Amino acid sequence: MTDHLLEVRDLHVDIPLGHSTLHAVRGIDFHVDRGELVCLVGESGCGKSLTSLALMGLLPSRARRRAAALRFAGAELTTLPERRMADLRGNRMAMIFQEPMTSLNPAYTIGNQLTEALSRHRKVTAAQARDRAVHLLERVGITAAASRLGQYPHQLSGGLRQRVMIAMALMCGPELIIADEPTTALDVTIQAQILHLLRELQQEFGMAVVLITHDLGVVARVADRVAVMYAGEIVETGPVASLFAAPSHPYTRGLLACIPVPGRTRPGEMLGSIPGIVPSLTGRLEGCAFRNRCGEARDACAGPVPWRQGLAGQAVRCVGAA
Amino acid sequence: MDKAVLELRGVRKVYPISRGMFAKPASLVAVDGVDLTIRRGETLALVGESGSGKTTIARMLLGLLAPTAGQILVDGEVLDASRRRAMARRIQPIFQDPYSSLNPRKTVSQIVALPLVVHGIGTPEERRARVAEMLDVVGLARRHADAYPNQMSGGQRQRVAIARALVMRPDVVICDEPTSALDVSVQAQILNLLVTLRREFGLTYLFISHNLAVVEHLADRVAVMYLGRLVEQADRASLFAHPRHAYTRALLASVLTPEPGLGVPDPGLGGSFPNPISPPPGCSFHPRCTLAAERCRIEVPQPTGTPGGTVSCHFPLEQGSAP
Questions:
Q1: How close is the nearest chain A Cα to the Cα of B79, in Å?
Q2: Residue A161: helix, strand or coil by DSSP?
Q3: I need a surface site. Which of A122, A317, B24, B258 has the fewest CB within 10 A?
Q4: What share of chain A is helix, strand, coil (3-state, %, to 5)?
Q5: Is residue A309 within 8 Å of A236, Cβ to Cβ?
Q6: Cβ–Cβ of B265/A265 closer than 8 Å?
Q7: Do A220 and B240 touch (CB under 8 A)?
């Protein structure tokens, strides 16, 4: 028995399409310890968002989830009745979504939405819930917090809405926050402010955070550990410093070569790129999913791909990696 | 110095905002007195947050919007309604989202040929040849000519959009966030293509972006906008090494490069993003500026010369105060 806060083993998410099945998440394993910030990074369609929804039990109804284990704080989520799951959600595990405009309800005030989860999960009076809401709005850097409670989402800017979302996730003092691209829709200066805040709060409250992103810059700056996803699988994982210093999977290396970095890449010079496109995830997929785009592919890549352990907790799923 | 191919002189754009049936309409000043020159063959990047007026400038340069005041000059001639058609041949756009900027009911060859048809250029035979040539140039296979946009990936669609822009052999291409809807690996392919095409066709780019790392990679000069005003412009090297405006410095500090161990920078700006309908008086940046003084609340700063360009600030940062 491990004491990871969250442990995911062999998680699959399948989406039935008319004649076939889309294997969106194909057997991923990872864990998150208390107080740790883990990033899932990958490009669109790699299964990172579905993974987060699968953890929260919020998958669309036609998607099918199965896993060897999905343990959160000792509870096995795969067999947990929906009522017990509803007790955890918003309470001990909370979610921050990408688009604060669409994930806040436009018809209710900020105050209403902030206090809802607390009143649902805890025995508190309306005044206590309100006090906690004001306290957290102040903590996430919103001025005139008490007067914001009566406002509606459309009266706030994107950055403020995302701060409200974060305050809302914190209301019940969760042990785990899952943040799906929390800053993608925001301007760069606001993005830096929000990430700064998220990291600060995570350390202050000792929460665990799973942050889903496509941006390797975000990963490098906030994560403790990172898992790189490609075509529904995790292909490389490790502590952020060692993974960025010595990326082992050809896909990770390819991604890093694609990004212009002031001071490192020469202006106007060709950037690295990854040829080809992501394979279709319908039907059965054998071997390494990256092999048809990989410069180092060999015959063995069509067979089973083993995990190889590297130094300092790094692990890579590649036939070629030494 | 090379000749100016595009010039904005005191350009201002005001949108009326309806506030319901009985309230007096408000006005939103999207672009407020911008002077800007784009020289032949250069890549000028226009950066700033959403709502800073970047896209409004792009739309005015394309002739899709008329400025409320001020003038837009193309090769020294004023762009007005009567010349718009002729100018449209020389200035072509590439938009942000290749999923919504391509007509889903037309094939790729129809999409790329459309500008030629609109301007009545060539016979059908010649148009076909020119479309085929353009698809080659942007790296699309011939078989894509009869495909529909929904059969293509995001990167391929953006290549179609680029082919459509270049088929007119324009002088200037206005790229409005051309890679921000794309994945990182695809973004790199498109940036590489834009760099190659610039060299091959001697293009002038106005490159609108909020991604400073991409701007550093591509631009010769950079103009920074904040709430409809130009706050700083300079050549790339000066701007990145010695930002003179506090907002430019904050933007640069917010770039998250993939370097672990540096943590998340705090750009040091207040969170109070101003309401664009009633922008703050004086320097519109002052509520978020750590250096703001009494004068900044009253007086609008005018552009003054710097070694690399101009800055509009009462208290510009000294050289050497790097981010």
A1: 31
A2: helix
A3: B24
A4: 35, 25, 40
A5: no
A6: no
A7: no
Residues of A in contact with B264 (CB under 8 A): 192, 195-196, 199, 221-222
In this predicted structure, the answer to whether residue B323 has a pLDDT above a threshold of 70 is no
Which of B49, B185, B262 lies nearest to residue A258, judging by beta carbons? B185
Torsion of CA A63, A68, A74, A76, to 10 degrees: 40
> Which domains are seen in chain A, by residue range?
1-92+214-260+274-322 (3.40.50.300)
Strands B91-94 and B43-47: unpaired
Residue A163 forms contact with B (CB below 8 Å): yes
Distance CA B203, CA B183 (A): 25
Max CA separation in chain A (angstroms): 67
**What 8-state DSSP symbol labels residue B86?**
H
d(C-alpha A68, C-alpha A76), whole Å: 10
Is the Cβ pair B192, A262 closer than 8 Å? no
Size of interface A-B (CB pairs under 8 A): 142
CB–CB of A9/A68 below 8 Å?
yes
Closest to B185 (Cβ–Cβ): which among A141, A254, A260? A254
- Could you give the CA distance from residue A48 to residue A164 in angstroms, rounded to a whole number? 24
- For residue A293, the chain B residue with the least C-alpha distance is B185
How distant is the Cα of A31 from the closest Cα of chain B, in angstroms? 21
Look at residues A120, A68, A60 and name the one whose alpha carbon lies nearest to residue A94.
A120
d(C-alpha A232, C-alpha A219), whole Å? 19
Most A CBs within 10 Å: which of B156, B183, B210, as the mutation test of the A interface?
B183
Nearest to A188 among B210, B219, B266 (CB): B210
The angle subtended at Cα B260 by Cα B254 and Cα B265, nearest 5°, is 25
Q: Where are the alpha helices (DSSP H) in A171-280?
A: 188-205, 216-222, 240-245, 250-258
Q: Give phi and psi for B195, each to the nearest 5.
A: -65, -45
The separation between the first and the last C-alpha atoms of chain B, rounded to the nearest angstrom, is 30
**Contact call for residues B29 and B20 (beta carbons, < 8 A):** no
Strand-pairing partners, residue B16, are B27
- Nearest CA distance, A88 vs chain B (angstrom): 30
Residue from B9, B153, B146, B2 nearest B70 by CA: B9
- Please tell me the distance in Å from A78's CA to the nearest CA on chain B: 32
Under a CB-based contact definition with an 8 Å cutoff, are residues A118 and A129 in contact?
A: yes
Whole-number average pLDDT of chain B: 90
Note the pTM of the prediction, 2 decimals.
Answer: 0.90
Higher-confidence residue of A114 and A285: namely A114
Q: Above pLDDT 90, what percent of chain A?
A: 74
**Percent of chain B beyond pLDDT 90?**
69
Which one of A137, A138, A258, A314 would you mutate to disrupt binding with B, by most B Cβ within 10 Å of its Cβ?
Answer: A258
E strand or H helix at A208, and its extent?
strand A208-213
Residues 6 or more apart in contact with residue B134 via CB below 8 angstroms:
B112, B163, B166, B167
User: Is the pLDDT at B321 greater than 70, yes or no?
Assistant: no
Q: For residue B218, what is the nearest residue in chain A, using CA coordinates?
A: A268
- Which residues in A lie closer than 8 A to residue B254 (C-beta atoms)? 188-189, 191-192
